[in-house]
Amino acid sequence: MPKIVTLPGDGIGPEIMDAAVRVLQTLAPDIEIEEHLFGGAALDAAGSSLPDETLAACRGADAVLLAAVGGPKWDTTDATADRPERGLLALRKELGLFANLRPVRPVPALYDASPLKREIIEGTDMLVIRELTGGIYFGEKTRTATSASDVCAYTTEEIERIARVAFRAARAKVTSVDKANVLETSRLWREVVRELHAREFPDVQLEHTLVDSTAMQLVSAPRHYDVILTENMFGDILSDEAAMLTGSLGMLPSASLGAEGDPGVFEPVHGSAPDIAGQGIANPLAMFLSVALMLRHGISREAEAAALESAVDQALEHGLRTRDLGGDATTAEATDAVLAHLERT
Known about the structure:
Blueprint: E1 3-9, H1 13-27, E2 32-35, H2 40-46, H3 52-59, E3 63-68, H4 84-94, E4 99-104, H5 118-121, E5 126-131, E6 141-143, E7 148-150, H6 156-169, E8 173-178, H7 184-200, E9 205-210, H8 211-220, E10 227-230, H9 232-243, E11 253-257, E12 264-268, H10 285-298, H11 302-317, H12 331-344
Parallel strand pairs: 1-2, 1-3, 3-12, 5-10, 8-9, 8-10
Antiparallel strand pairs: 4-5, 4-11, 6-7, 11-12
């Protein structure tokens, strides 16, 4: 029996997690689900954003489903203070989650919800693959009264393992994004990706682009991309930009994966939205799509994953719109709509 650990977290997290569990239990009633504290909620209750008990449970699970963490209550500029985001970085590091996958596929029913013209986004189907445990977010940090520094560092091994994920996922082309005209880490990145491509994946098309030009092309010609491969900070920024092709951050799921056999973490890209927490109006669709990624990549349930993705598409085609998509559907109404289409499959 597959075991899933759920981490509701903060803000709207518990609301969308409750909705996700309803959907998951309908699709796969045999799955064991175990909930644990994480993020700000864990800080308040246990004094740590990632309690030892939570980490141990995640390590023992087949997959981890995470809703959202953070909020103004725990914001601080004190570098020594624990905060929800530190727990998230620690969880990724402790589980060895080096590959973040963010599929971006605008749903035809929502083409008009995007700030970009329909003819620009129509037919877009890309996957952003972001290196998750290296780079500037994890480099050595210094701080004095008048200066600060954050070290960006990558090794050949770190670059090769994330590049392999990208080449294996590509249907035709990998676009490797860097800043090789300025950064030494990017020059190493480009060299390693080029050598790996020639050695192991010569049948996959490879192109190298600079991060600034990629940012422009993402909103001018998104159909150009199949798989985008990039380092931690660039991937963080570009994937959020790409999310707007779908019309809302509330539509974008993600999967964070490590070595084969290790539990992955599956979560929506959006934040905890504390301004609407407790109102029952959060969009749960990115959470549902994260459940689909978990079913596919975490416990090898492809049929159930495809059924859930289809149910979300059908609900939108039949007019489902939450507030962030220009409608007035509540979290519960959105969940009921998706479940209704699941029951018809």
